[in-house]
Each structure stands twice: as structure tokens, then as C-alpha cells.
Design a protein that fits this description.
By secondary structure, the protein is mostly beta strands. Strands 5-4-8-9 form a four-stranded antiparallel sheet, with no helix packed on it. A three-stranded antiparallel sheet has the order 1-3-6, with no helix packed on it. Strands 2-7 form a two-stranded antiparallel sheet. It has a single domain, classed as Alpha-Beta Complex (Phosphatidylethanolamine-binding Protein). The protein contains one helix and nine strands, in the order αβββββββββ.
């Protein structure tokens, strides 16, 4: 009986444990947005995002950008219906561009995979990527 119970526990763990090396990831490039260092951001199309290992069951991905040097400023973001493609092209949504006054700041894009489009839809995973702007 103990052997059977132990085997059941191992099988259950294998079913719910995530596979190693399959983390949801995100990368991006700023693209062709206008240079901005005045502190007054422009409204621009999203960067090109490249996703990997998007969680199974994802219907929507919500994107948001945070200025790590001024996290209280809301740059906005957007949501994209996920159709299985791992590249999100510019123009899927618009946001307030990076625009550090007189220098460079670090910005983090966060992508949250959701099981549906509603506010209370289950989150399936989160990916983040950080870059400086202007790029060095």
C-alpha cells in the first residue's frame, strides 16, 4: 500500500510540476519611435514583442510598461488577443513612449497571459523584459 501511495504522489507531482526551461519569456526592441528626452512622452505604437513558451490556454496577453526610475508614472499598455503567434507586431496598441528628462532610464515591459479577456480572468503566467532608453 505504501508503494502504491508513493507512486500516486510522484505521478501527481509530475502532472502539476512545470517543466524546467519552459518559462514564459518576453523580449522587445524600441523600434522606430521618435527620440524623446523632454519628459513629455509621445503616444506611439507598441514595440515589436517576441514571446516564448506562452502558457497553454492563453486567450489574451496584457502588456504594461513601467519606468523603473519613476514607477509612479503610468505609461499605459494594452491587451492583445492571443492567436498562437509568438510575435506581436507594432500597432497592436498604443502607449506613452519612454521619455526620460535629460538622461536615460530603465523601462520594464510586463506581459501577463490570461485565460480570458475579463478583468477577473485567471492569470496563467507573467513575463518581463527590461531595456534602457535611449538605448546605449
Amino acid at each position: 500500500m505504501a508503494k502504491v501511495l508513493g507512486s500516486i504522489i510522484i505521478v501527481c507531482f509530475a502532472i502539476v510540476a512545470p517543466a524546467f526551461g519552459e518559462d514564459f519569456t518576453l523580449s522587445f526592441e524600441w523600434g522606430d519611435i521618435p527620440l524623446c528626452t523632454s519628459g513629455n512622452p509621445n503616444t506611439v505604437p507598441n514595440p515589436k514583442f517576441v514571446l516564448a513558451n506562452v502558457p497553454e490556454g492563453t486567450k489574451v496577453i496584457r502588456f504594461s510598461m513601467t519606468d523603473l526610475d519613476v514607477p509612479s508614472y503610468n505609461h499605459g499598455g494594452g491587451k492583445v488577443d492571443y492567436t498562437g503567434k509568438n510575435t506581436i507586431e507594432p500597432g497592436a496598441f498604443q502607449y506613452k513612449s519612454p521619455c526620460p528628462p535629460g538622461g536615460s532610464h530603465s523601462y520594464r515591459w510586463t506581459a501577463v497571459a490570461k485565460a480570458g479577456s475579463g478583468f477577473f480572468a485567471k492569470s496563467l503566467g507573467k513575463a518581463e523584459a527590461t531595456r534602457s532608453y535611449p538605448s546605449e
